[in-house]
Structure formats: structure tokens, C-alpha cells
Design a protein that fits this description.
The chain is an alpha/beta fold. The chain has a single domain, classed as Conserved hypothetical protein from pyrococcus furiosus pfu- 392566-001, ParB domain (Alpha-Beta Complex), CATH 3.90.1530. The protein is built from 4 helices and 5 strands, in the order E-E-H-E-E-H-E-H-H. A 5-stranded mixed sheet has the order 1-5-3-4-2, sandwiched between helices. Helix 1 (about 25-40) crosses helix 2. It starts with 5 loop residues before the first strand and ends with a helix.
């Protein structure tokens, strides 16, 4: 497996994936804004192609625009085939929906 290489790309050169099925509500974007404001932009976008199509991180792009960020960290996924990229978008967006939180552990962390 190749090492991930992060490159910083102008936000205006990033383009949304037109078949993205993930819903980003205004409330969710605002939560992402707050998270970036507090902790920084620590999660690179997954992009592919000459048009810098954002395959993962469209919500983060919208939040970054609200914050006035001009360059975002990105990881290229060009090593995947078109079919693999399409499957990856769905897999990436759905894996965090599979489980919830351990309520006791969450409360313990919040009580610190």
C-alpha cells in the first residue's frame, strides 16, 4: 500500500461529487463549522481526477467555505477505478451509520 500524501488545494478548485447520496443539513454543516473552529481542519478530503472531485468530505468543504478557508488538505484516490471510487463513496458514507455510542462511556468522557 502506498503512503498517503496530503496536498493542499484551493477551495475554488474542488468540485462536489454529483452523485453524492449523503445529506448535509444546515444544522450538520454548522456542527462541522463549530468542530473545525474548535479543533482545526484535521481530516483531509478524499478527491479524485483532474477536476478534484470531492468523494469524501463535501460537508467539510461547505463548512470550510463558511469559515473563509482558502486551501484544504486532500488525499488523492486516483489509484482506484471508477467503479471502486463509486463504491468507496457509498461505503465511506455508510460505515459511520452502522453503530451508535456506548452511552456509559460517552457520559464518562463528557463528565471529565
Amino acid at each position: 500500500m502506498d503512503e498517503l500524501k496530503i496536498e493542499y488545494i484551493d477551495i475554488e478548485k474542488l468540485n462536489h461529487y454529483e452523485n453524492n447520496s449523503k445529506i448535509h443539513t444546515k444544522e450538520q454543516i454548522e456542527h462541522i463549522v463549530n468542530s473545525i473552529r474548535e479543533f482545526g481542519f484535521n481530516d483531509p478530503l478524499g478527491i479524485a481526477g483532474e477536476d478534484n472531485i470531492v468523494l469524501e468530505g463535501n460537508g467539510r468543504v461547505e463548512a470550510a467555505k463558511k469559515l473563509g478557508l482558502t486551501k484544504l488538505p486532500c488525499v488523492r484516490l486516483d489509484h482506484m477505478s471508477k467503479e471502486e471510487l463509486e463504491a468507496y463513496v457509498i461505503a465511506h458514507n455508510s460505515t459511520n451509520l452502522e453503530t451508535g455510542f456506548d452511552s456509559q462511556m460517552l457520559l464518562s468522557e463528557l463528565d471529565k
